[in-house]
Amino acid sequence: MENKILFIFDIDGTLFDTSARAMIKNRMFNSVRYIDQDHLEQPLQLELFEEMDFAEFRSAEIFANASVPKKNVVQQLKGNISKHPTSKTILLTARADLDCKETFLNSLTKQGLNMSKIYVERAGNIEQPTPIAKKSIIKKYLDQNFYTMVKMYDDQNKNLKAFLDLELEYKNTAFKAKLVNKNGAMRTFHG
To answer: pLDDT 10s digit of each residue in the chain, 191 long?
Structure first.
């Protein structure tokens, strides 16, 4: 019997490059400024009368039309599914629910992803910082005691560090973290 593996792939910056941006709206001056994906990962202090708007990140149409796959990471995901048919693959995104589930899933299918074998988890629906939200979702899977190994692919050090922090709690599960860079190259992350 094959060991069961849980494969976890982040979406934005890992599987796909995205042009979605967050808007910071200033109600007092009726102005808007934009923050791209790279700058969202840094601590951001909003000024008085400012509010964050993630409408572009909730737009399935923007995702479908403007996201560019990182081909080698997509190939890695497909290869994992092919080589380990009894394992589970999830896409664990910092996004909240998108405005059209069908458009979003169809765009993933058009990239050659078999969405009948992949489940999407949205950490943005949890009111916590992304690393903590992702960690709680991963715990939900590990608490099922099905997995002998869990392997996470992400472009953010802090998400991978939170993931590796779970090793102490799940001693019977092997953990492997892969940091994905801008070009889609993957390297082992040790925390």
So the answer is: 457 999 999 999 999 998 777 778 887 788 787 777 666 666 667 777 877 777 788 889 999 998 999 999 999 999 999 999 989 999 999 999 999 999 999 999 999 999 999 999 999 999 899 999 999 999 999 998 789 999 999 999 999 999 999 999 999 999 999 999 989 999 999 97
Asked if residue 92 lies in contact with residue 9, where contact means CB atoms within 8 angstroms, the answer is yes
> Residues 47, 127: one domain?
no
Q: What is the CATH number of the domain that holds 78?
A: 3.40.50.1000
As a 3-state breakdown, the chain gives helix, strand, coil percent values, each rounded to 5, of 35, 30, 40
Prediction pTM value: 0.88
| Count of the separate structural domains present in the chain | 2
Q: Are residue 53 and residue 26 in the same domain, yes or no?
A: yes
Q: Which residues of 83-97 are buried (b: 16+ CB within 10 A; e: fewer)?
A: ebeebbbbbbbbbee
By CB atoms closer than 10 A (0-12, 13-18, 19+), residue 10 is buried
137, 146 Cβ separation under 8 angstroms: no
Distance of alpha carbon 86 from alpha carbon 188, whole angstroms: 24
Strand partners, 17: 68
